[in-house]
Specification:
By secondary structure, the protein is an alpha/beta fold. Helix content is 36%, strand content 15%. The two termini are 29 Å apart. The model has no long low-confidence stretch (mean pLDDT 84).
C-alpha cells in the first residue's frame, strides 16, 4: 500500500499489509515480509509496478497486469524474469462480455470470502459514468470506484 492510513485500516481489520511509498522498495520489502516464500502472484493494477514486481515474485511466479501506463511503455528486467521462470499475464476485461466477467468473478470470489474486508472508502457511480471513471483512473486517480447499473 502506498498510503499509511490504508495500511493502518487493513491491519486494524486483521489483514497483513505494509507501506510501499516507492516501487524500487518492493523487492526488499517482499523479501523481508515473505522471507523464504516470495509471492506466487503479484497483481499490478497500473503497470507502474511491473519492473519491481519482476524482482519480487517467487520462482515460477506470475504477474498479472491489468492496466498499463498512459504511454503503454515499460522498461523491465527481463533477465530476472527469465531466471525466476516467471511469467507476465495481461488481463484485459474489455475482451470479455459482461456475462463472461460475472462468471469469472463468481468462480474466484469463493477464494476471497471472509479473507478481505470490504473497503468503505469508495465512490459509487452509475454505469453510464464508466468512461469518466476510467479516465479519472487513467489520469492517475487512486480513488476506489464502484460502478452501479
Amino acid at each position: 500500500m502506498r498510503r499509511a492510513e490504508v495500511v493502518q485500516d487493513l491491519e486494524a481489520q486483521g489483514v497483513s499489509a505494509f507501506q510501499l511509498p516507492e516501487a524500487d522498495q518492493l523487492p526488499e520489502l517482499a523479501q523481508e515480509r515473505f522471507q523464504q516464500h516470495l509471492p506466487e502472484v503479484i497483481f499490478d493494477t497500473t503497470g507502474y509496478w511491473l519492473p519491481a514486481a519482476i524482482n519480487s515474485v517467487g520462482t515460477f511466479g506470475r504477474i498479472a497486469v491489468i492496466a498499463a501506463p498512459v504511454d503503454g511503455l515499460i522498461s523491465m528486467p527481463v533477465l530476472n524474469l527469465y531466471r525466476r521462470g516467471g511469467s507476465i499475464i495481461g488481463v484485459n476485461s474489455l475482451l470479455y462480455s459482461l456475462e463472461d466477467c460475472a462468471k469469472m468473478l463468481e468462480r474466484i470470489s469463493a477464494a476471497f470470502e471472509g479473507d478481505l474486508p470490504i473497503p468503505d472508502d469508495f465512490t459509487e457511480l452509475r454505469l453510464s459514468e464508466a468512461v469518466a471513471a476510467y479516465n479519472k483512473v487513467n489520469e492517475g486517480g487512486s480513488e476506489k470506484i464502484v460502478l452501479i447499473p
